[in-house]
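lol ok so funny story. i was supposed to be doing the assay writeup but got distracted and ended up predicting the structure for this chain instead. priorities right. anyway since i did it might as well share w the group, maybe its usefull for someone
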Amino acid sequence: MIPPVIGSETASPVEKELFARLRDEVGTADWTVIHSLDIAQHRVNISGECDFLIAVPSLGVLALEVKSHRSVSRDASGMWHLGGDPPTRTGPFRQSSEAMHSIRNEVARRSPGLKGVLFWSAVCFTNSTFSLSSPAEWHEWQVIDQVDLQSKALSELIKSVLIQARNFVASKSIGWFRPDSGEPTAEQIDSLVKILRPSVECFESPKARRRQRDGELIRYTEEQYEALDNMNPSRNQRVVFMGPAGTGKTLLALEEARRSALREERVLLCCFNRLLGDWLRNEAEPLKPFVTAGSIDAIMLELAGTEVPSGAGPSFWRETLPTLALEKVLDGGPGCEPFDVLLVDEAQDFLHEGYLDLLDSLLLGGLKQGRWRFFGDFERQSIYGSSVSLDETLNRIAPGTPQFELRRNCRNPPRIAAFVGYMSGLDHGYSKVLRPDSGVEPSIIYFDTPEAQVQELVQLFRSLEGMGYRGGEIVVLSPKASGCAAEQVREAPWSDRLKRARAVSQGGIRYSTIHAFKGLESPVVIVTDVVSIGTERDQSLLYVAATRAVERLYLLASTQLRPLIAEIFLNPKTGGAG
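and the output, tada:
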């Protein structure tokens, strides 16, 4: 089923019923069904839609038009009357046929090897008995009505239409049709899906005001479609999705939360980073009450019913708080009911016994038998000191868990992706970078003194303002928790516009530590206070910071690093962009 859920936005309840029957009936396990398929290249209208496009191996592809009206008739003038709808000259059979031919023409144009696949059309009248006959316009076997649906399996009705269609076409001795070819094959159906699916399924994050304003729609890549297929609970109960920064892991986690909410399942969507947790909670707001989202710290504090003590250090967050939260969950108090689905973003930072024990107690069936998805970058983004490997963790909590690798960068333009590979020593890089080349190189700006760095930063603000960037599109990141360059800016108006990322106001320029901004992105990223790049930790921090940039990247680096950086680019260890 593509998509694998059918949501409340679908107007017709009967479509939901047919969706469930196609999904669940015996004999459809190897079928592929695309529902609510928008047809951009309609051969008659500007655009159109196919209710269900059903691909049955060795039989054909059926475009099924669904009509839920309680009365259907055609008068002497040829006008169709469907329930209380306005009369129309375009009947349901022509509507279904035109949709089918439009799809077939586009598929054949894109993949000539599919020209021999039988495409046919039919109409399903779910709430009425259809007795009209017009052999010149449709065959009686192209009709599925209320009586048929009540007496037979929908899968058998679909197969019957396609078998009758094959017999009819074979009787006409049409050259392109080979009755004994066994088409469509599984490979042909995969090709069909790859052609049609980008027009079928796109993702717009739940709270999309900013993207609507900017006219930005996030479309899944072919690789991510395969990842979405692996999310299907009928296929895999537990999966680890792994990949470098920018490969869409967070968006996949959100999409899985959306799909689970449509199935009315209780979902826990958590991450490690507090800023990312705030963003996830905001994005998932429309999915309440089914989805609980946020950082693990915020979730643990709420479960434990406690506040952060004065001077709380790492041991409080990694040991004391997980223990307090776990005790409350085991006590079974209000709000501690197990979740149906667990989604963990930034999973590389959760490979710690205290966190895993808590997550195990929060999931129905636990980590060993429950349904969960981990999304993480296990190569470079673990900057919180976790020494436990993914394989060790999986062997302990759920041996044999499949791992799905994402390698296509859909965030950074090619020059930034390549820069990341050079500067951070990324081992494997990206298999492909999807954004087009903007022609803008990442820029390294050297400074001799802290005061000179501040002046360079202010000059960057002026330049970016001249390019038309707004404050909210710029973030300044530093490895320093205090005393960073952004805090030293005193020149107006920039000193007033700079705001800590957690308290950013409209139009303000955000600044943050690299740690705190992990998992997020910004059109413009300025990395300051780069005074060391020689250690593995330095490279990990630089990797996290640089991969936040969607359009432009600037590094403010100490002049002492100039020879070392020149050597990196003259003798690179990796190209980074694949």
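Residues 174 and 475 are 63 Å apart (CA to CA). Residues 40-47, 199-217, 574-578 have pLDDT under 50 and may be disordered.
back to the writeup now i swear
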